[in-house]
Amino acid sequence: MNDNALRLGTRRSRLAMAQSGQVAEAVSRVTGRPVELVEITTYGDVSREQLAQIGGTGVFVTALRDALLRGEVDFAVHSLKDLPTTQPDELVVAAVPAREDPRDVIVARDALKFTDLPSGARIGTGSPRRMAQLNAYARSHGLDIATVPIRGNVDTRIGYVRSGELDAVVLAAAGLNRIGRGDEVTDFLSVDTVLPAPGQGALAIECAAGNADLVAALAELDDPFTRIAVTAERSLLAALEAGCSAPVGALADLLADGQIVKEMRLRGVVGTTDGTRMVQLSTTGPVPETHDRATALGRELAAEMLAQGAAGLMGERAH
Predict the structure, then answer these.
(1) How many other β-carbons are positioned within 10 Å of the β-carbon of residue 103?
(2) Which residues are catalytic?
(3) Which of 179, 205, 259, 317 has CB atoms 3.0–4.6 Å from 95's, for a disulfide?
(4) What is the pLDDT of residues 13-67, one digit of tens each?
């Protein structure tokens, strides 16, 4: 171990290793110190249970945070959409780098687009959010699809399509891009069809709040626009008390006039997984100048969604 090296805690999955490797290079550039990857196995990686049953994607975060709190690693990289909305006091998200493509995509047999899938097509996804919106879209456009719950890494999921077991699978564009497999995408799902998970496509770089030097160094990788957008999205999620297994989609995008960013639009959706009942709203206003304003924007839209019956769509996860 190089005494001068920073230890970066990462999950062992191919995607986690890829995104941690990319962050490691950037951190090395801004700190002038080598970065060593420390692989940490999480319960979510070894369990075969459905993610919703074992506490949602937060199970991937817990082991990394434990290693941070014990001082075994100096910082960790998370997919922001996996991060629980409550932040432990001892840890700080020092940087949210510029976001990758936030959209969901499909990888379908015979290079088919979503709307060209045959009647009765079987589409695999482990996400209630994706199921809810795909089923709602199919219902409103007279398409006949069946969503099939799956989990596993990218290879496993795409394997179901290659083997003919499924007609298509839904994945995040960002994940495929980060592991260099964007060329396998057969269709991009417009955010008008499927709103992504809050924070999708963004990473969170987390470290101990007390390590002021490291916090300051990592902050150089922060992208203010991405941070404001994901703050609003996650505030909406927190206010809906959605937990990770509830089908909430959210996206904040910046509306520009030429080169000048004028406004931010925040969209939210929640629905039953069969797509029969959906609450979808949006709000547009000035780009929030502060973390608190971004948080307030998310909370306000969530309140409107709750007023329109969103709570009744949460199922047994509602508090």
Answers:
(1) 20
(2) 81-82, 129-130, 151, 157, 244
(3) 205
(4) 888 999 999 999 999 999 999 999 999 976 555 545 544 443 455 677 888 999 9
Rounded to whole angstroms, how far apart are CA atoms 131 and 104? 12
Q: What tens digit of pLDDT does each residue of 124-183 get?
A: 998 989 999 999 999 999 999 999 999 888 999 999 999 999 999 999 999 999 999 999
Whether residue 263 has pLDDT greater than 60: yes
* CA angle at 153 for the pair 151 and 156, rounded to the nearest 5°: 80
Of the candidates 15, 1, 52, 30, which has an alpha carbon nearest to the alpha carbon of residue 214?
Answer: 30
